[in-house]
Amino acid sequence: MSKQLQTPIPDFSTCLAWVKLVSAGFPGSGKTSLIKHFCDSRFSAGYQPTVGADYGFKVFRVDGIDLRVNMWDLSGYPEYLEVRNELYSGCDGVLLTIDLTEAKSVANIDAWMREIAQCCLGSPGQQQQQQSSMPDIVLLANKADLKDKRQVTPADAAKAAAKHKLHLYETSAATGEGVDKAFRDLLQRIVQRNRAAWAARGVKME
């Protein structure tokens, strides 16, 4: 994935529907590996922290519509909050990722949800009036393959997801478990939400 900070401008003359996804979550939770697996079906075992943000895209067909899925991999470190704030803007979906081998990942979900809401909707007063503008968010409980190192129980993950009304997927970027289903389900919800608007713009549908 190539590094850049400017979101590409949609070109509807291609008849593709453009979708913007961003990742969020604790550093080291596997956000980059999940996106690489979806884009390229590959996995790197070494950990290299994302500096600021990384970008990749994939053309993907969902429910008869060809999507250009633009994916922003956002660094989870506090010093990159301004970068995240800029790139949350206009996103259709958020991949909120936790690490099943780190108990503190679950404890941080509340803070990440506050950040997403504030960046996407503004102040708490504005948030109450604009809930329909929130992006679709999925909770990816990653590193499901590391069963002997697991610190987050299925019940704890399910409780956290239910609290924020999030769709929960246990995933493994190493084995591919749950990755394609999580992305496809998220994209299907985005398609359902935007189908009428895309049709009005001339996006090709079957």
UniProtKB/TrEMBL annotation:
It comes from the Eukaryota. Keywords: GTP-binding, Nucleotide-binding. The keyword Glycoprotein does not apply. It holds the Pfam family Ras. Gene3D superfamilies: P-loop containing nucleotide triphosphate hydrolases. SUPFAM superfamilies: P-loop containing nucleoside triphosphate hydrolases (SSF52540). GO terms for molecular function: GTP binding; GTPase activity. Transmembrane segments: none annotated. This is Ras-related protein Rab. It comes from Macrostomum lignano.
